[in-house]
Amino acid sequence: MIDAIGEFFRKRLQSRDDPLAVEEPLRLAAAALLFETAMADYDLGDTERATIHALVCSQFSLSDVDSKALLALAESQAKEATGLHGFTSLINKHWSEQQRLTLVEQMWRVVYADGRLDDHELHLMRKIQRLLHIPQKDFVAAKLRHKPG
Questions:
Q1: CATH number reported for the structural domain that contains residue 35 in this entry
Q2: Domain of residue 26, residue span
Q3: Taking the model in full, what pTM does it have?
Q4: How many domains does the structure of the chain reveal?
Q5: C or N terminus of the chain, fewer CB within 10 Å?
Q6: pLDDT tens digit string along 113-131?
Q7: Distance separating alpha carbons of residues 4 and 56, to the nearest angstrom
Q8: Does residue 84 sit in helix, strand or coil?
Q9: pLDDT per position as a tens digit, 47-66
């Protein structure tokens, strides 16, 4: 798996000074967190996959080939991860609070893609809120904006 990730980044990076040197791992971390959210209820459905694909394509303006490669790696990383700290610490280091809040908004969209909020999903979202240092009022507002009618 590590070799596949390294190859993915090597193919897309021209030099160490390339801004993508930071962007690619951030994209992978964000997409992996979206998959973590989708898998929290132990049911990664087609609706959640489609939501993640749409969110990643929209946010990162990736080609279909690049988005599919990123999503495959992100799903694999999420399944193999033993914790969230690796993903969240990278995001905290490079993203503003607004960018982190946008990610939390996207995560709520994934949570509610199947029309319901599972206890495991809520627990994960609260953990991520703390790890990404999202203020409680913003976290609750994001949740309510994406809650189905």
A1: 1.10.3680.10
A2: 2-146
A3: 0.85
A4: 1
A5: C
A6: 999 999 999 999 999 999 9
A7: 20
A8: coil
A9: 999 999 999 998 998 888 88
